[in-house]
Amino acid sequence: MAHASVRDGEALREFVRGTTGLAGMVVSAVGYRTRGVSPALHRGLPSPYLTLIFSLDGPVTSGLTPEQARGANAVRTDIVMGGLHQRPAYVIQPEHEAGIQLALHPLAARRLLGLPAGALADQIVASGTDVLGRRVAEIHERLQEQTEWEARFSLLASYLRGRAAQADRAGRVRPEVGEAWAWLARHRGAGTLNGLAEHVALSPRRLTTLFRAETGLSPKQAARLMRFEHAKSIVVRELTAGASPNLAQIAADCGYYDHSHLVRDFRQYTDVSPTAWLAEECRNIQAGGHRNGEQ
């Protein structure tokens, strides 16, 4: 396990990167714990992966807007399930919190969740119990009883392996969709829809229909999200290394038309500029809190 933490006076930010033995299905597993931080509004950014969170220190409070997250209509759940989405979720970050966040490959949703990722289309926050059933509440209770991160990761790995092993033919994804996702991932969101459709021997319209039903996104939307994820990971990596990210160069390297094109995508997916997002998340980035989903 990889462990990182940052102390700032009385404040502690701790992140632990674990393993599940489910390569290709669980992209990453990160345990987190914070103590003594100033309460804040955190942006849960879109990514090419589904999000599954087990909170170990009270329910996660979130919303589609800052106003909802802070208001009486906020969503509160101990187990968070999020589909692929194209705008940020807003999460209240309290003075202390702890949990485990998993990034799940969307094409593994049938095996791990019992339904295609498309069934969660644009559900930024849903109850994990509603999606996974009552058994997951028992797993959540057992996770809370554990005191060591390694034991928690082991418990989750066993639970998810059991679900994957029980998946039947309904767990199979059409090979054309699987290859289309792999093609987009290899190209990090670059390429054209026509080129992708030709690669998997489907018409663009038929590919889009099948792809959206399986993932909840069109191929173009998935490509754009993958490109943003790649650019964001470079920004985070440079900041972590102590460098000042060169957004114009990153835009060029990631296939954006220009710097302003990258900024527009950042604003869509974060609701703020790259500079403002980095200022908000600097402490979490330094502690390793933005590695969830990176392969």
Automatic annotation (TrEMBL):
Specify one Pfam family. Answer: HTH_18
State the UniProt keywords alphabetically: DNA-binding, Transcription, Transcription regulation
Protein name in the entry = Helix-turn-helix domain-containing protein
Please name the Gene3D superfamilies in this protein's record: Homeodomain-like
Where the record annotates domain HTH araC/xylS-type, the positions are 192-280
Q: The organism sits in which domain of life?
A: Bacteria
- Asked if the Swiss-Prot or TrEMBL record annotates the protein with the keyword Transcription, the reply is yes
Q: What species was this sequence derived from?
A: Streptomyces xiangluensis
Keyword DNA-binding appears in the UniProt entry: yes
Q: Which InterPro entries match?
A: AraC_XylS_family_regulators, Homeodomain-like_sf, HTH_AraC
